[in-house]
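Propose amino acids for all 63 sites.
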């Protein structure tokens, strides 16, 4: 997992998504269990899934 404090200073872009209140609450609970802020938890999970899908497609994993 990425070091949250180290990774934080490199953020220059934002990404907005729409989700239900139930989804957000579930994500927040999972982030709390992982000991991460919600945005860091979502970013790390998306990064892992994207890297796997890129690898499966034979594309570079430059995430």
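Proposal:
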């Amino acid at each position: 997992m990425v070091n949250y404090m180290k990774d934080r200073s490199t953020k220059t872009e934002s990404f907005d998504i729409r989700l239900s209140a139930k989804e957000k609450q579930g994500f927040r609970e999972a982030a709390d269990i992982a000991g991460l802020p919600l945005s860091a938890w979502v970013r790390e999970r998306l990064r892992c899934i994207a890297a796997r899908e890129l690898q499966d497609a034979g594309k570079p994993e430059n995430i």
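The radius of gyration is 13 Å. The mean pLDDT is 89.
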